Automatic annotation (TrEMBL):
Family annotation (InterPro entries): ACX-like_C, Hydant_A_N, Hydantoinase_A, Oxoprolinase-like
Domain Hydantoinase/oxoprolinase N-terminal: 17-191
Pfam families named in the record: Hydant_A_C, Hydant_A_N, Hydantoinase_A
Lineage: Bacteria, Pseudomonadati, Pseudomonadota, Alphaproteobacteria, Hyphomicrobiales
Domain Acetophenone carboxylase-like C-terminal: 517-683
Protein name: Hydantoinase/oxoprolinase family protein
Species this chain originates from: Mesorhizobium abyssinicae
Location of the Hydantoinase A/oxoprolinase domain: 216-500
PANTHER family the record matches: 5-OXOPROLINASE RELATED (PTHR11365), HYPOTHETICAL 5-OXOPROLINASE (EUROFUNG)-RELATED (PTHR11365:SF23)
Domain of life of the organism encoding this protein: Bacteria
Length: 692
C-alpha cells in the first residue's frame, strides 16, 4: 500500500472509498481515491469516553492532510469493537430469558466444560443473564416440528411483568426445537410486544436457527446483550456521517469477513462482534494473494491483544465457536486465535517475585508510559523503547512522540523489584511476550494440522512488526512479509471485503439417495434467502453461492463442515458427498471409516456479493543495497549493539539490507533481528528470510 497523497484541495470528480477500523488504542483509516489509485492512511487515538468522536476527527484530518472530501465518498466500511467490548466489560443490557418450563438452567449448565480442566481453582464465567431473570413458560414443540403443548400466555404475561419489575430492557425467547419450527417463539414475541412495547425481543430461531438449545440460546443472548449499545452507536454514526455530507451508505464488517449495511447491524448485532479481527485477516488475505503468498500465518498486534490466523491457498479459514470474551460464538466467523499480549500489555511482578506480561492493558488512556499521557506502568511498548528498538521517530502519523525517560522510569521500577539491570528487565518482558505468543501459535498449528515452517509470517497492526520477526525466528519460520502500511491492514480489509451472508438449516437425516431431495429443497430455500439478503444490502449484480454441510459418522457427538459442489446435488450423487466427507475427516483426524454410516446435521449456504476490484501499483525491482539513515544502539538480548536505522519511505523495490536493523515509518516500527536478510519487493512489501 503506497502512493499516499500529500495534501491539497479536494478535487471535483474524485471518488473516495474509505475503510475504517477501531481498535483498543487507535482507529485506523485506509482511503482510496478510485479514479487516480491514490491511497491515504491515518491513525487516530480512540476516545473510549465518546465512541465515534475519533471517526469524525480522523475524517477531518484526512481532509486537512490529504485533500479528502467526504461529500465524494462512495463507499464507507466500518469495523468497530463496541459489541465485543460491551461483552468483555459486561456493560450490556439487562435481559430476561423465556424458555421451556423445566429447562430454566440451560445457560448455566451450558456444556459442562471447564475453561481449564487441570486447574483446581478454575470456574466457569457467570452467565450474562442471572438465574432469577430466567422464566420457564409451559410450552413444548416436538422434534418433528409438531406442537405438543401451546405456550401458556398467562404465564407469558406474568413473566413479562416480573422481568420488567426486575429491570429488564429486553427479552430473549428460546424454546426447544425452534430450529425445526419457530412458531411458538414467534407467538410469544408477539405477546411480549403487545404487553410491553418498550422492551425489545429476539427469538433464537430468528438469530441463528441451529440444533442444540444451548448454542442457539447463547447466540441469541449475545445478540440481545449488545443490541442497545450497538444500535445506539450505529444510529449516532449515521447521523454524524449525514451531518458531514457523506452520501455513501455505511457498511459494517462482519465476523465472517464480509459486510452488511448499518440498518441490519442494529438488529443482527451478533454478526459484527469479531468484525475488527476478521477484517484484518481479510485484508491480509488480499495482500497475500497480490504478493503470490499461498500459506500465511497472520500476526495482528494492537494495544491489547495479539491475534493469529491461517491463510491457506490465499483464503482465510472459517469456523464456529470463536470466543467472545468468555463466551463461545456459534455463528460462522473467520478463525482467529487471540491472546492478551499487545503493545499496551502491562508488565508486573507478582507476589512470588515472578515477572508477568498482560492480560491487563494500558489502552489508549492513559496508554504506555512512553506516550506521556499519564501512564506509569511498564508495558511491552515501554520495553521496546528501553531496548532501543523504538523512540527514533514520531509514531501514529505524528500524533505521538516517545518519551524514553518515562519508559526507563516505568521499566526501572520493575527492574529494582527484580534486582536486575533495566535493559535485561526490558528484554525479559519482550521474551515473555514472544513466548506466550509462541504457545498460542503452536496450539493453532496443532489444531489445523499444519507445519508452520511452510508458512510465511505476515505481521501487521501497530505492534505486529515490532515483535513479528522475533516470533518467526522462534517458530522456525523462514519468511516474514510486512506490508507497506501494516498499521492499517484491518481498515484495508473492510475496503476490499465482499458482502457476505451466512444461512443455515438443520435437517438431521442420514446421508442416502432418499435424503437428497430434502437436502436440495433446503439448499434451494437458503439460496433464495441469500439472494433476497443481497438485494436488501443494495447488491444487484451476480451472486456467488457456496454450499456446505455439517456431517458426522453415526454415533459421533459433533460434526465437521464439508464443502459441497452444487453439481453433486444436481446429479443426485450421494457417493460424491460421502467421499468429500471421508476426505475432510481424514485431513482433520488422520483416519476415516469408508463403511461408516454418515449423518447430515446442518446445511449451510454463504451468499457473496463481490466488492470493488482494487489494485495497487507495482514497481520493478532495481536491486541495490539500502542506505541507512543513521546508526543507533540497540540492546539485542546480550549486549548493546550498533545497528542501522532505515526510513521506510526511502526503501524502493529491490532495496536490500541485513539485520539487526530498525525500519521506521508513520504507522509502526519494524524490528529486524540478526540473521535476517531483508528485501523490498515490487509491491513494496518488506520481505525477511532467515538462513537455515
Amino acid at each position: 500500500m503506497d502512493g499516499v497523497i500529500t495534501g491539497g484541495e479536494a478535487q471535483s470528480g474524485t471518488d473516495w472509498k474509505v475503510g475504517v477500523d477501531i481498535g483498543g488504542t487507535f482507529i485506523d483509516f485506509c482511503a482510496l481515491e478510485a479514479n487516480s489509485g491514490r491511497v491515504a492512511s491515518l491513525k487516530v487515538l480512540t476516545t473510549p469516553e465518546d465512541p465515534g468522536a475519533e471517526l469524525m476527527t480522523g475524517l477531518a484530518l484526512l481532509g486537512e492532510r490529504e485533500g479528502f472530501d467526504p461529500t465524494h465518498m462512495t463507499r464507507f466500511v466500518h469495523g468497530t469493537t463496541v459489541g465485543i467490548n460491551t461483552i468483555i466489560q459486561r456493560k450490556g443490557a439487562p435481559l430476561a430469558l423465556f424458555t421451556n418450563a423445566g429447562f430454566e438452567d440451560v445457560i448455566e449448565l451450558a456444556r459442562l466444560r471447564m475453561p481449564d480442566m487441570y486447574s483446581l481453582f478454575c470456574a466457569r464465567p457467570d452467565p450474562l443473564i442471572a438465574r432469577d431473570m430466567v422464566f420457564g413458560i409451559p410450552a413444548r414443540m416436538r422434534a418433528d416440528g409438531s406442537e405438543s403443548q401451546a405456550p401458556d400466555m398467562a404465564a407469558v404475561e406474568r413473566a413479562v411483568m416480573a422481568a420488567k419489575a426486575n429491570g429488564a430492557q429486553g427479552i430473549i425467547v428460546s424454546f426447544l426445537h425452534a430450529w425445526r419450527n419457530g412458531a411458538q417463539e414467534a407467538s410469544v414475541k408477539l405477546a411480549v410486544a403487545r404487553l410491553a412495547p418498550d422492551l425489545f425481543v429476539f427469538t433464537s430461531a430468528e438469530v441463528w436457527p441451529v440444533i442444540r438449545e444451548y448454542e442457539r440460546s447463547s447466540t441469541a443472548i449475545l445478540n440481545g446483550y449488545v443490541h442497545p449499545r450497538v444500535s445506539g452507536y450505529l444510529t449516532a454514526l449515521e447521523e454524524r456521517l449525514k451531518r458531514r455530507g457523506v452520501p455513501a451508505r455505511p457498511m459494517l464488517t462482519k465476523s465472517n469477513g464480509g459486510l452488511m449495511n448499518a440498518a441490519e447491524g442494529k438488529r443482527a448485532c451478533v454478526n459484527m462482534l469479531l468484525s475488527g479481527t476478521a477484517s484484518g485477516v481479510i485484508g491480509a488475505s488480499w495482500l497475500a494473494r497480490q504478493a503470490g503468498e499461498d500459506k500465511v500465518l497472520t500476526l495482528d498486534i494492537g494495544g491489547t491483544s495479539a491475534d493469529f490466523a491461517l491463510i491457506i491457498g490465499g483464503e482465510a479459514q472459517f469456523g464456529t465457536g470463536e470466543l467472545i470474551g468468555e463466551f463461545p460464538l456459534h455463528i460462522p466467523s473467520v478463525s482467529v486465535s487471540s491472546i492478551g499480549v499487545g503493545g499496551g500489555s502491562i508488565a508486573s511482578v507478582d507476589a512470588q517475585g515472578v515477572l508477568r506480561v498482560g492480560p491487563e492493558s494500558a489502552g489508549s488512556t492513559p496508554g504506555p508510559a512512553c506516550y506521556g499521557r499519564g501512564g506509569t506502568q511498564a508495558t511491552v511498548t515501554d520495553a521496546m523503547v528501553v531496548c532501543g528498538w523504538l523512540g527514533h521517530s514520531e509514531m501514529a502519523y505524528g500524533q505521538l512522540r516517545i518519551d524514553t525517560g518515562l519508559a526507563h522510569s516505568a521499566v526501572g521500577e520493575l527492574a529494582a523489584r527484580l534486582g536486575r539491570p533495566v535493559e535485561q528487565t526490558a528484554q525479559a518482558i519482550l521474551d515473555i511476550a514472544v513466548s506466550e505468543m509462541f504457545v498460542e501459535v503452536e496450539k493453532l498449528a496443532s489444531r489445523a494440522g499444519v507445519d508452520l515452517r511452510e508458512f510465511t509470517l505476515m505481521p501487521f497492526g501497530g505492534g505486529g512488526p515490532m515483535l513479528g520477526a522475533f516470533l518467526a525466528r522462534e517458530l522456525g519460520m523462514k519468511r516474514v512479509m510486512a506490508p507497506r502500511r501494516p498499521g492499517v491492514v484491518s481498515a484495508l480489509g473492510g475496503l476490499v471485503a465482499d458482502l457476505r451472508g451466512d444461512f443455515i438449516r438443520t435437517i438431521f437425516s442420514p446421508l442416502t439417495a432418499a435424503s437428497l431431495p430434502e437436502i436440495r429443497e433446503a439448499f434451494d430455500a437458503l439460496a433464495q434467502e441469500g439472494r433476497d439478503w443481497l438485494a436488501a444490502q443494495g447488491h444487484d449484480a451476480a451472486a456467488e453461492l457456496t454450499l456446505s454441510c455439517d456431517m458426522r459418522y453415526l454415533g459421533q457427538s459433533y460434526e465437521i463442515e464439508v464443502v459441497l459442489s452444487p453439481q453433486w446435488l444436481a446429479d443426485a450423487d450421494p457417493e460424491a458427498i460421502e467421499q468429500a466427507f471421508h476426505r475432510t475427516h481424514e485431513q482433520l483426524y488422520d483416519f476415516h471409516d469408508p463403511d461408516g454410516e454418515i449423518e447430515l446435521v446442518n446445511v449451510r449456504l454463504s451468499a457473496i456479493g463481490a466488492g470493488p476490484k482494487l489494485s495497487f501499483p507495482e514497481t520493478d525491482e532495481i536491486g541495490a543495497a539500502a542506505i541507512p539513515a543513521r546508526r543507533l544502539s540497540v540492546y539485542t538480548g546480550a549486549s548493546l549493539e550498533v545497528v542501522d536505522l532505515h526510513d521506510r519511505q526511502t526503501l524502493v523495490p529491490g532495496s536490500t539490507f541485513r539485520g539487526p536493523a530498525v525500519v521506521v515509518q508513520e504507522d509502526t516500527t519494524f524490528a529486524i533481528p540478526a540473521g535476517a536478510q531483508a528485501r523490498v519487493d515490487r509491491h513494496l512489501n518488506l520481505l525477511l528470510t532467515f538462513a537455515e
